[in-house]
C-alpha cells in the first residue's frame, strides 16, 4: 500500500496476501488482548536457552552449547539447483528449525536467543517484516511463539564466532567434535512452513 495517494483507491491483492490477512484476523480474533511479547527488548543474559545456527551450500546446522547438542540437515540437490532458494532462504530455515526444536523442550523455555551470522535473517525475525516469499518463515515462527508461549530474540554473531554451527552446516563433524568435545550429533528435518490461513 506504500506510495498510494488516494486513501480510497482500490489495491490489488494476491492469494498469498489474502491468506496472510486471514491468518492475522484469526489470530486477532482468538487473542486474549494481551501483547504477544511480554517484552520486546530484554537482556540476552536472561535467556533460558541459547542456540547458534548456520547454513551453507550443502546443509544447515544448529548447536545448543548448554546441552552440547548439534543438529544437521542436508540440502537436497533439487533445492541446491533452485535459484529462488539462495543462502538467505536456508539461513532463515535454520533459525526456524532451531526455534521449533527449542520451543518443544519440556519445560518450554520462556526466553530464547538464536545467534546467526546472517544479518538479513536477524532483520526479518526482529522486525517481523520481509518480502512476501519469506513471510512463511515469520508466520511459522509467530505460530510457534504463541503456541508455546516463548519469547525470541535473534542476534547477529560474527562468522568466526559461529564455528560449531558452521561445521555442522558443512557436515564437518570431526571439526564440530574438535570444537565442542563430547558433542551429541543428530540429524533434523526442517519444518513444513506455514502459509497463513489453511484455506481461503
UniProtKB/TrEMBL annotation:
GO molecular-function term, one example from the UniProt record: nucleic acid binding
Gene3D superfamilies documented for this protein: Ribonuclease H-like superfamily/Ribonuclease H (3.30.420.10)
Coiled coil: none
Protein name, UniProt field: RNase H type-1 domain-containing protein
Source species: Tricholomella constricta
